């Protein structure tokens, strides 16, 4: 099974892959620790992992880290669920009816290339500095990417499936629910997983807008006082949350679509 690691598209067990991942992470941390302690990099710019983990423990005990994690988690998932609830039906309509796609796709293509940080001042003017602005910025960074993914997933449903269903007497509603949605479901779940990761990347931008809670707030406050270990610790927390969430969604995908 180990030989599969060195073959093109070789197969191996999840346990072996997990072991390799842990070893690679450990090697990276050891190199980082050695470089920091050996003076190859300034600790002000890149502190050793041991200092970062010490800062993380201090944040957990004295800075209510779990509370801030919960706040950020609620913001990200709230914005993501709103984006998904809007993007899935709109994306399906865009690829199913040409008039909808022709009307919406140019606007969506234009907006998705706009940098989210540049829209922070406008969002404050529109919504103030409360929770609505933070949710809006997270939604903005997710919705316009996800809706095009959904539209592409629907376009990839083979026409043969639709034609066979109609030949067998299926109505338009049956074709949509029993054929098209079932066919696109695996790639749709994958794209939801990917865009959820993007939503987390906009967290810092959302939580620097007059925030007094959240991981982004902790990172931004630590940056102000040049507390580099705490800045990196906050980033590590976001990365760990993303890693765990991504792996759980991968497991969900495997359990839902065992036939792939």
UniProtKB/TrEMBL annotation:
It holds the Pfam family BPD_transp_1. It is found in: Cell membrane. Keywords: Cell membrane, Membrane, Transmembrane, Transmembrane helix, Transport. Its main location: membrane. The chain crosses the membrane at residues 12-32, 65-90, 110-129, 135-151, 200-220, 232-252. Residues 69-249 form the ABC transmembrane type-1 domain. It is a multi-pass membrane protein. Belongs to the binding-protein-dependent transport system permease family. This is ABC transporter permease. It comes from Rhizobium wuzhouense.
